[in-house]
Design goal:
The complex is a heterodimer of chains A (228) and B (475). By secondary structure, chain A is of the alpha/beta class. Chain A contains 8 helices and 12 strands. The chains are: A alpha/beta (228), B alpha/beta (475).
Chain lengths: 228, 475
């Protein structure tokens, strides 16, 4: 069926359907749907991350964040890492820090020049993903990832272990605030892919038993840098 | 289950299938927990979020507004998708959608396709069409993968393999592996992760549905807990999303309203693990992501619903909350409904898509208790619509037998004429009581036996209330 015929049919049906519009309550606004935010944003955020199955930790400085990473490296013994190129991570100087702990940071510029099979092999073998986030949501414990060059979607997806480092200033109270966060880029300049991450990969498909790590990372760590 | 015909070529006998479901101990074991798990989590989620009532109302209003001007929002969506380098295709029915998708795959030399869970692709029987065209098709949601191995159909909107028990799943996955896997859920999931990761890495195209399509940004929104939807739109070079036209919402700013209710309704989570907003193919400087993105917009009977009194059923966001809440679903499971969509919402939309007479049992497969409406994240008036469908059924020629029609006509008349009613009740106390034993009627004679087939009736009292009142009540 042609586009014109299709849309004409929808136009006619939508018009006829207006006779059956539902009765609605007047005076409902989006603001009424804001969750209650009593506690401190960092406290609320890490409580929700925990509920979602993540392991959050709050540190004061980038230096302390690096110590947390060292502990994770000791535990998981990763050999290679997919890392974002992000201002928050630049403060950790991952490029020097990772090799000093025996972890190779996969260089996006290098693998971009490799052939398809070679590149696939490298990224699928990565043991850990390290990212920041575009913003984080206290209400739900979500990380909001705006993907793009250097902020690759695969970093939080392919490796079995995923670590995100975020700063207090990145945390917004409510899901509604995410819209304002992207406001300047709406509607035309949004990144190609935005993903909200709220937990380790989960399934309940075998007799409703919770299993983590079925497709995405089964381990989810969040390091919050909070100078306060 | 033998009564579920995957491609629905033959007529589905609801009563037979329901009876088989009730007699199937394994299925019953699967269904037993549903009320204590998913349904309970949903009720707790609404209770813990008092604002949910306002948000659900708002979600409902946005859906109503979108459908009232759906043609305009579709055109805006198309412009937005094209602006980001995506392509939009229109399909009037399932066959057109399958053809459009097959064409895209063929012209690009695709061999292997990975899919993330999509009820819309079930609805149009896409897998059969793709397999007939000799593409390799792999379902990647763990539940869907298991269901695909079992050659069955999903039995629940969000938990497709709900009807299968661990030993059956173990057998299916071991069969696929060619060896006996360790039989813990963790080991089975790990096998699926490895097996399917290899498919993701080598697939040429990923096919998804869409939880929402956003008009002002041209976005497709995909929600999953496992991460397979993300992999489907990250590793293959082509992404095709097939989306029913009712999935449109006007603005990116509307999305949080729906995110706040969808996961709470589906699983009791505040958010599902992964919510991806896909705004087009990858940008040239990105390392991974599809180079091409296609959106197939599907009508397949939706405009027929849109123009009529059951238009509200198009508000559905496919969360499954009404299934989990429904006492009927919780007894017979999804397959007995015979359609792609089961439970209370399936009892409405299966007859609308597939014909009311062919599915005449479905509107009656409800006690009208209203648990579905109370659970619904967009407050769809499901019981009211079921009653409306029952009403429409009675207008269908040949639906009621001649005798049954006459009997109901007589009943209606006698209820309006006091002296006939009085005579009727007087007769009942003196005749019907004879059929009873110990105060219960276990078997009605002749054509009436259907009423007592699966339940007993309390016998009418030997004295009418009006006679008792005359004697005792007036002081």
């Amino acid at each position: 069926m042609s586009r014109e015929t299709f849309l004409a049919r929808v136009r006619q049906a939508a018009a006829a359907g207006r006779a059956y519009r539902v009765h609605v309550q007047p005076g409902i606004t989006a603001e009424m749907g804001r969750a209650a935010h009593g506690a401190d944003l960092v406290v609320e955020f890490i409580a929700e991350v925990t509920k979602a199955g993540g392991r959050p930790v709050v540190v004061r400085t980038p230096e302390e964040a690096k110590q947390q990473l060292v502990e994770l490296f000791r535990f998981y013994e990763p050999r290679s890492a997919l890392c974002w190129q992000h201002p928050v991570l630049e403060k950790l100087q991952l490029a020097e820090f990772l090799p000093s702990h025996g972890v190779e940071q996969i260089d996006f510029a290098v693998i971009a020049r490799q052939d398809f099979d070679h590149r696939r092999g490298t990224i699928l073998a990565a043991d850990i993903g390290i990212t920041s986030a575009d913003c984080a949501v206290a209400e739900t414990g979500s990380l909001v990832m705006a993907h793009g060059a250097g902020l690759e979607r695969i970093a939080s997806l392919l490796p079995p272990v995923f670590v995100a480092v975020v700063e207090r200033a990145q945390i917004v109270p409510d899901l509604f605030d995410v819209v304002a966060h992207f406001g300047g880029r709406l509607p035309e300049k949004l990144p190609s892919n935005i993903t909200f991450i709220t937990g380790p990969s989960k399934t309940g498909d075998i007799e409703s038993k919770l299993v983590t790590g079925v497709h995405g990372p089964g381990k989810w760590h969040v390091i919050v840098i909070d100078p306060q | 289950m033998s009564q579920t015909d995957y491609t629905r070529q033959t007529h589905h006998e609801f009563l037979v299938a329901a009876e088989q479901a009730l007699d199937d101990p394994k299925l019953q074991a699967s269904l037993t927990n549903l009320g204590d798990t998913l349904a309970q989590r949903n009720r707790e989620a609404w209770a813990a979020f008092p604002q949910s009532d306002a948000v659900r109302e708002l979600a409902r209003q946005i859906k109503d507004e979108t459908l009232a001007h759906l043609d305009e929002y579709l055109e805006e969506f198309e412009v937005s998708v094209r602006r980001r380098g995506g392509e939009v295709h229109y399909a009037a029915d399932g066959a057109e959608a399958c053809t459009a998708i097959t064409e895209i795959l063929r012209s690009r030399g695709v061999k292997k396709v990975v899919k993330s869970k999509s009820m819309t692709t079930e609805e149009i029987h896409l897998n059969e069409a793709l397999e007939a065209a000799e593409f390799e098709v792999v379902e990647t949601d763990l539940g869907e993968f298991i269901v695909q191995l079992s050659k069955q159909r999903p039995s629940h909107l969000v938990a497709p393999a709900l009807h299968l028990r661990m030993p059956e799943i173990h057998e299916l996955l071991s069969g696929d592996a060619g060896e006996t896997l360790p039989n813990t859920p963790e080991d089975m999931a790990l096998y699926a992760r490895r097996r399917l990761r290899a498919d993701f890495a080598t697939a040429d195209a990923g096919i998804t549905g869409g939880n929402f399509a956003i008009a002002d940004t041209g976005s497709i929104v995909l929600i999953s807990n496992e991460g397979n939807a993300r992999l489907t739109v990250s590793l293959p070079r082509i992404h095709i999303a097939i989306v029913g036209i009712e999935k449109l919402i006007p603005k990116f700013a509307d999305l949080p309203v729906f995110l706040k209710v969808l996961a709470r309704a589906a699983t009791g989570q505040k958010m599902s693990v992964y919510t991806s907003v896909i705004n087009g193919p990858k940008l040239p400087d990105e390392l991974e992501g599809p180079e091409e993105m296609h959106v197939v917009l599907l009508d397949n009977g939706r405009t027929r619903i849109l123009e009529g009194p059951l238009r509200e059923s198009l508000f559905c966001i496919r969360c499954g909350a009404c299934l989990n809440a429904c006492p009927i679903y919780r007894n017979i499971g999804g397959h007995a409904y015979g359609g792609v969509y089961s439970g209370p919402i399936g009892a409405i939309i299966t007859p609308l898509y597939d014909g009311l007479v062919a599915n005449h049992h479905l509107p009656h497969a409800s006690s009208l208790c209203g648990a579905c409406q109370a659970a619904c994240p967009v407050k769809i008036a499901i019981p009211e619509m079921l009653i409306r469908l029952r009403d429409q059924l009675h207008a269908e020629p040949g639906e009621l037998g001649w005798a049954e029609g006459k009997a109901y006509g007589l009943w209606a008349r006698s209820m309006r004429v006091p002296w006939i009613y009085r005579l009727g009740t007087w007769l009942a106390t003196r005749t019907v009581g004879r059929l009873s034993k110990n105060g219960w009627i276990r078997k009605l004679p002749g054509a009436l036996h259907g009423w007592t087939k699966s339940r007993d009736f309390p016998a009418p009292a030997s004295e009418r209330f009006r006679d008792w009142w005359k004697r005792e009540g007036e002081l």
